Amino acid sequence: MVSLADPILRMRRRKARKGQGADIIQKIAMVMAVLLAAAAIFAPLLTPFDPLGQSLLARLRPPLGFERYAAGHLAGTDELGRDVLSRSLHGLRLTLALAFAGAVIGLVVGGTLGLVAGLRRGWVEDGIMALVDMQIAIPFTLVALLVLALMGSSLTVLVFVLGIAGWEQYARIVRGEVRRIAAMPYLDAARTAGAGPLYTAWRHVLPNLVSPLVVQFTLALSNIVILESTLSFLGLGVQPPQPSLGSMVGLGRDYMPTAPWIVLTPALLIVLLTFTVQILGDWLRDRADVRLRER
């Protein structure tokens, strides 16, 4: 005779195994995040060669384990004899710095506009949400290409472009949370007690926005990494000889048939970086959302 509890037990065991698998992936992502961050921060100490140093006598040398390997160049050299590993680590450092700066700008701009839209109803809210709808409707990659083509490819312009890449997501999240919080009884009590709009926003609204904003910041970081790599690959991002992961892939694509290692290392770092940040973003979202945590 089959007990009714048996299917429930089997379901719980499947969920437990699934949870263990997810925990392993998250732990791997955390370790990768620490290693990538350490590699980016300490890149000047870890790189064996000058990332801009050229040696035509050592050009297009393969990585360790292949014939014609040049001593010390573990990941090989590029078309100008520059060390691929050194350039990749410095490129990781610059790509992460640009992505972080862009994500912070998007957080400040979008969070401020979303807060204003949530607290100030009427034409102010309608105008801000119209800008949000426009940003969502137009493919941002085309906007970025247009801005960089007209204003140049300096790092200042690139940071500005990356900063406005995802501000609309922050604005929508903050506006929705503010409108939800505004209906809470404790906010009415604060207003009745004489609290002004700035004090109410700082003391009662902003603390409740930290969790969703941290999750969105993490997810936006990986998207900005991909955008920066795309723009640099197309030649509109970081300009040579300064290395970034996207520009290294773009410059090395012509040598793919004969020297694929030029592209392999920076492309692998892009994949690992976006994978790690995305997994951590999903984990933070699950931890922050009570409904997902209870499933």
TrEMBL record:
Gene3D superfamilies with a match to the protein in the record: MetI-like
One Pfam family name is BPD_transp_1
Coarse class of the protein's main subcellular location: membrane
Q: How does it sit in the membrane?
A: Multi-pass membrane protein
GO cellular component terms, semicolon-separated? plasma membrane
Give yes or no: UniProt keyword Transferase: no
Tell me the compartments it is located in.
Answer: Cell membrane
Keyword annotations = Cell membrane, Membrane, Transmembrane, Transmembrane helix, Transport
GO process terms (BP) = transmembrane transport
Transmembrane ranges, per UniProt, are 21-46, 94-119, 140-167, 259-281
Q: Which residues form the ABC transmembrane type-1 domain?
A: 92-281
* Family, per entry: Belongs to the binding-protein-dependent transport system permease family.
What name is this protein filed under?
A: Peptide/nickel transport system permease protein
